[in-house]
Design brief:
single chain; 286 residues; alpha+beta; Phosphorylase Kinase, domain 1; Transferase(Phosphotransferase), domain 1; 2 domains; three-stranded antiparallel β-sheet; 14% strand; Prot_kinase_dom; protein serine/threonine kinase activity; ATP binding
């Protein structure tokens, strides 16, 4: 069972716990702690772990609670299978920890998700890579997503922060919004507007093509080193449905055709799935 995280039980009792959740996450009752051996100080390295918990207080966290519980259930299910897109993990009980270490421990769900530290793939400037390296990275990314879809799931919340590298492999994070591809009922409006495909703004259901579009936005922002800008939900809708342009720097112009096919405004004009992207990348010479 390669997906189960090997973690010394003593670390859970002796580690220094630091609350690292963003303000927005705290607004939804999400608590993210960094666990580190006291001797390592503030250095983040392979001995660092992340502990994810959810407040279960009855004060408007219902949607976040449902997402957290779904992610726990998926990790429990997937831990018995071999998935290279998944980080090794453990689901632990609050009772296994020193409660004095956890802020808001009395309000947390009794189970927490423990994950190892992994480097964000898109934290490095794209200009540090040559075309062959970027192409290889894109093949790794779409291979991970192809495996997820072949297993029957959409990630449904793709963004740059959800791609990491661990032990030399691309892994995916955060499955709170993941939905079965075969599901007849899928919420359309719980995605992040920055990465939403045009059809989602019109109330259509999430699909492989909407995940493909979200990845296209991630890659577009990385290769251009520019974040898309909009202030309101309506502004995001206009941007994605009407105003989005694909204008890569000259050194990355090789990837412009494939991005255009990922970011087509009509989902029927996008590529079929992540395997098709992979085959196209493999077949084209840099």
């Amino acid at each position: 069972m390669q997906n189960l995280l090997q973690c010394d039980q003593d670390l859970l009792q002796t580690a220094v716990y630091r609350l690292k959740a963003k303000a927005q996450s705290l607004n939804f009752g999400r608590y993210l702690y960094q666990l580190q051996n006291a001797s390592n100080g503030d250095q983040v390295n392979s001995s660092c772990f992340w502990l994810k918990g959810q407040s279960m207080r009855e004060d408007g966290f219902e949607h976040a609670q449902q997402g957290f519980l779904q992610e726990l259930a998926l990790y429990q299910q997937w831990s018995l299978q071999r998935h290279s897109f998944l980080l090794p993990h453990r689901i632990i009980s609050v009772n296994q920890l020193d409660h004095r270490q956890l802020i808001q421990a009395d309000h947390l769900h009794p189970q927490l998700l423990l994950l190892p530290h992994a480097e964000s793939i898109f934290s490095r400037d794209s200009n540090q890579f040559n075309l062959s390296q970027i192409k290889a990275l894109m093949i790794e990314i779409v291979s991970a997503l192809a495996q997820l879809t072949e297993f029957g799931w959409l990630h449904a919340d793709l963004k740059a922060a959800h791609f990491v590298r661990y032990q030399g492999q691309v892994r995916l994070l955060d499955f709170e919004q993941a939905v079965p591809i075969a599901s007849a009922k899928r919420p359309a409006m719980n995605a992040t507007p920055r990465y939403m495909a045009p059809e989602l703004f019109h109330g259509q259901l999430k699909s492989v093509q909407s995940d493909l579009y979200a990845l296209g936005i991630v890659l577009l922002e990385w290769l251009t080193a520019q974040r898309l800008q909009a202030h309101t939900y309506e502004d995001w809708a206009v941007l994605h449905c009407q105003r989005l342009t694909i204008d890569l720097p000259q050194q990355f112009i090789f990837f412009e055709p494939i991005l255009r096919d990922m970011l087509a405004k009509q989902k029927t004009q996008r590529m079929r799935d992540f395997s098709q992207i992979k085959m196209r990348l493999i077949s084209e010479n840099v």
